[in-house]
Amino acid sequence: MSGLERYSRQILFAKIGENGQRRLLQSRVAIVGAGALGTVIANHLVRSGVGYIRLIDRDLVELSNLQRQTLFDEDDARLNLPKAVAARYRLNKINSEVEVDAVIADLNLENAEDLLKGFNVIVDGTDNFMTRFLINDVAVKHGIPWVHGAAVSSRGMFAVFKPGNTPCYRCLFPHVPAGTGETCDTVGVLSPLTDIIGSFQAMETIKLLVGTGESTPNLEQIDIWDGTSMQMDISQGRNPQCPACVNGQFDFLDRSSERQVAYTTLCGRDTVQINPKSTQELDLFKLAEALGKSGRVAVNEYLLRFSPVEAISMTVFKDARVLIHGTNDIVAAKALHAKYIGT
């Protein structure tokens, strides 16, 4: 029992117990997104003793994140640290016995299966529909349960999807919604909301891993400003014509489907993301030396920040992915990329 002492209060909960705790220690969880939801989820799972956690995020810490993204501080923003790396540093201080694998990447059809297969549970800490459809395809194809969550403004929701036992995400949402919808960057979000939704997601993940609790059969929705909630029973919601869980058609993993685009505007952030056409690894310090002749440059081992003019800045990651800040015009972003980074 001595090695389990730090989890003693959790073990006292009868539906977990010592056997459940040992299962947690042997479990593997992938969290997609290290923002407001992802940091709450990771914090709870690390403290609970989930043995291996992969934290996947494409972004870096900014000052505006600190209002709700609970694993970060002002130093992380000042140092331009990638969220996955900053979160791993904090999580290692919380529980050094848990292995946290920080992956700085944009989850897309090129890497999703490699990054997500082989896990006991996948948890959704994202903020966009395309990534959720991608997670769903991987989860259904490989038989991995996943926990969905979303939070914007004062409203949040969560649900559990178990391939073979429940409808899948695409049963409930057959098509990618037109437009981008409301986001934290356009209508804001309340910090207590992300704590609540992320905590529910962590709890559902623990129940799946321990195997002694029933997952919620509902799509749970809550508005913390109005103090209202709603439960929608989705247990009978399977679509008999679902392309994914019924017909085994995984459109979001199909390279011929053109679901993944090279250029993406990040809603509300005045930013365009440019994905590389092929897998590569940049020498950021060499690139910094070259770009230093054309503007202000700051570089660390994870990313490079470059400002050619006052209104425009670029974040270049080691995998050659680039965020161009200061414009949502894809044509202008492509021109800036070609001028300073190359094709």
Explain what this protein looks like in three dimensions.
This protein has 343 residues and is an alpha/beta fold. The protein has two domains: 2-257, NAD(P)-binding Rossmann-like Domain (Rossmann fold); 263-340, 2-Layer Sandwich (TATA-Binding Protein). It has helices spanning 8-11, 17-25, 36-48, 74-78, 83-94, 112-116, 129-142, 169-172, 184-187, 191-210, 284-291, 330-340; strands at residues 28-32, 52-57, 99-104, 121-124, 146-152, 155-161, 218-223, 228-233, 263-266, 271-274, 296-299, 303-309, 312-317, 322-325. Strands 3-2-1-4-5-6-7-8 form an eight-stranded mixed beta sheet, sandwiched between helices. A six-stranded antiparallel beta sheet has the order 9-10-14-13-12-11, with helices on one face. It starts with 7 loop residues before the first helix and ends with a helix.
Question: Which short descriptors sum up this protein?
Answer:
343 residues, alpha/beta, Rossmann fold, TATA-Binding Protein, 2 domains, eight-stranded mixed beta sheet, six-stranded antiparallel beta sheet, 12 helices, globular
Q: How many whole angstroms does the radius of gyration measure?
A: 20 Å
Order of helices and strands: HHEHEHHEHEHEEHHHEEEEHEEEEH
Going across the major beta sheet, what is the strand order? 3-2-1-4-5-6-7-8
Give the overall shape.
globular
CATH-defined architecture of the largest domain: 3-Layer(aba) Sandwich
* C-alpha termini separation: 57 Å
Q: What is the strand and helix layout of this fold?
A:
Blueprint: H1 8-11, H2 17-25, E1 28-32, H3 36-48, E2 52-57, H4 74-78, H5 83-94, E3 99-104, H6 112-116, E4 121-124, H7 129-142, E5 146-152, E6 155-161, H8 169-172, H9 184-187, H10 191-210, E7 218-223, E8 228-233, E9 263-266, E10 271-274, H11 284-291, E11 296-299, E12 303-309, E13 312-317, E14 322-325, H12 330-340
Parallel strand pairs: 1-2, 1-4, 2-3, 4-5
Antiparallel strand pairs: 5-6, 6-7, 7-8, 9-10, 10-14, 11-12, 12-13, 13-14
Helix pairs in contact: 3-10
